Amino acid sequence: MNDQVILNAVTAAARAHSFGPEFDAVLLTGSGARGTMTAGSDVDVIVVAPPDATRRTRGNLEVHGVLLEYYVNPPDQYRAYFRRDLLSSNAMIFLAFAESRIVYDRTQIGRDLRGEAVEQLRQGFPRSGSDQIDFDRYSAVDTYAKLQKAHRAARPCLDAMIYLAAYDVYVSLARFYGMGVLKPGVAIDYFGPKRLFNALLGSWPDPRFAAAYQALLHGESHDRFTHYSQLLERALDALGPIDLRDWSLSLDLDLDSPNGARRAF
What we know:
By secondary structure, the chain is of the alpha+beta class. It has two domains: 3-123, 2-Layer Sandwich (Beta Polymerase, domain 2); 130-246, no CATH class. 52% of the residues lie in helices and 12% in strands. The chain contains eleven helices and five strands. The chain has a five-stranded mixed sheet with strand order 3-4-2-1-5, with helices on both faces. Helix 4 (92-98) crosses helix 5 (109-123) and helix 7 (158-177) packs parallel to helix 11 (224-239). The mean pLDDT is 89.
């Protein structure tokens, strides 16, 4: 899908859904920007509305048999998303901008926002504090004990439990290292053969953890618990050991956390 077709589609969507008639920038992101679109791919488009826009819009439009998915926000709203997602180490919006290709940029705001996203990825994300690390250790080992029981009982949902537990360990370690967190489907490609976003996020600091995660995601089902055990062992090498028989963590009350703050327990 060429740039003029994208611009025409965004203009048509603006008329149909009343988020226009003007917009300041259009950025193509996702597989369209990476040049990896397949027959089933949709087209992801970031639209920057003028600064005085009072509403935000998200929608779909079919163009020549291809689904175009668009996100429309003024610059201040995108920057609010940046601030919120930085708090939770969520890398996805930063990656969407950083990998994007400019289709239209009337005021240079598209380049500005893309540059801000690239710079944040370069700087990294907040590292977990000691209390969060302590809780993440506890959570990982406690979950492992539950998985051991499910493994011995040959529970049919064991694979799903392992996938969820492995992702939680990945999130804990990403925050420990000060790396951005990817959503589950994207993390699969980050650790898999595609090495998606390695150039923007950087390679994973522990190659043995990365290998165990890749083996867990792509290996045989009967080996999955073993791979999870190896993955957890590598994680605890970084986070530190813990003994569940004599563990506690006491924190101040947290009644007014801002949206996007670190998870509580």
